[in-house]
Amino acid sequence: MSAFFVIFAGLLASGIPIALTLGIAGTAYLYLSGNGMMVLMLPQRMMAGIDQFVLLTIPLFLLAGALMNVGGVTDRIVHFARAMVGHRRGGMSSVSILSSGFFAGISGSATAEASALGSILIPTMSRQGMPAAYAAALIAVASVMGPIIPPSITMIIYGVLSGTSIGQLFLAGIAPGIGIAAGLLFYASWRAKRDGFPVTERMVGRDRWKATARTLPALLLPAIILVGIKAGIFTPTEAAAVAVGYALIIGFAYRDLNLRRLWEALIATTLVSASILFITSMASIVSFVFTLEQVPQRIADMVLLLTDNPWLILLLLNLFLLILGMFLEPISILILTMPILLKFQALIGMDPVQFGTVVVLNVVIGMATPPVGILLFIASAISGEPVTKVIREALPLVGICILVLASIALIPALSLFLPKMLF
């Protein structure tokens, strides 16, 4: 297997897209290992990897988020958050965190959240007197909530690959999402007092009610999805279709959505969906290679030679996933490592829903973890600040996310309370 990893690392370092890297490395290994005839099976494996009805949730949830975004919901969410907490010292930092949490319940994507909210809120925070690097770091780390708070594309992928209930994973993501938001709000409040960020005028009650009324329909979307799945009204796939219909109704009702913007949303959804499903199909080749060579069992045996302590195994797994998250997108990591992850889950005996929450938290936190987290580079590009400055500001914020991760990993009730109560 060393040949596979050498080829994979070389292709990735040369800048070849991850999807092609996975497919080329897997195919090359089959030839080098004397299993060239098995290459004939690869098209079938690729189709089998994406020929799953539940994967329809990905383009549908992406479309719902895109419709909300082009339909002006992003601006209404920011306005609503400003009405609630904008009057606090350094209020726009708190607005950014709350906006990220609310937007997470619509988009399900960290990169989409960082791009959409960063372009609005980073300049606004800078105008309020906050350092641009701090504003960028706050948006980058707060965007981690996107793939955690339901509906989450990353949770869907994990559920499909592992056979874990997607509805339970959605519910399990609520607690860590709230934990990260609360931790970031506490830090933002402390930082505002320490650095003397300005205080803005409180909105009058009438304007606050108006902002709430205009935003409430969009904020109800996650609740509709969760209640519908729990009540058995629709499956996760049907919930995604309901989300699209709901987004269309809201957009046209508020007259923020027109045919041109609808077309833009469809194009954006098509491009992102094709990218995700292409990665999924190519990663099926690697999963086939790993199964053929019994890689999960070999890695499990190597770890057991080091230690059989479940807590140490969990620590090693967390470090491994955080490092991978710095370099690869969460979906690529899950597809590439799922056979290994399931073997580790059996070794430590953790509940499948809790384990899935821990895994997803790890890979999405890696996106905002220095030195190469993709969210840091997105926020840096929007702010115009050097990424080194953004990284320095992001370190304590990432520390808060890791504390939440440790709590979820060590205290099962935090992630399992809602799934066990409602399912």
Automatic annotation (TrEMBL):
Protein keywords: Cell inner membrane, Cell membrane, Membrane, Transmembrane, Transmembrane helix, Transport
GO CC aspect terms: plasma membrane
Protein's cellular compartments: Cell inner membrane
Stored InterPro entries: DctM (IPR010656), TRAP_DctM (IPR004681)
Membrane-spanning parts: 6-32, 53-74, 94-122, 134-160, 166-190, 211-233, 239-254, 266-291, 311-337, 358-382, 394-418
GO molecular function: transmembrane transporter activity
Its membrane topology: Multi-pass membrane protein
Known partners and oligomeric status: The complex comprises the extracytoplasmic solute receptor protein and the two transmembrane proteins.
Assigned protein family: Belongs to the TRAP transporter large permease family.
The protein's name in its UniProt record: TRAP transporter large permease protein
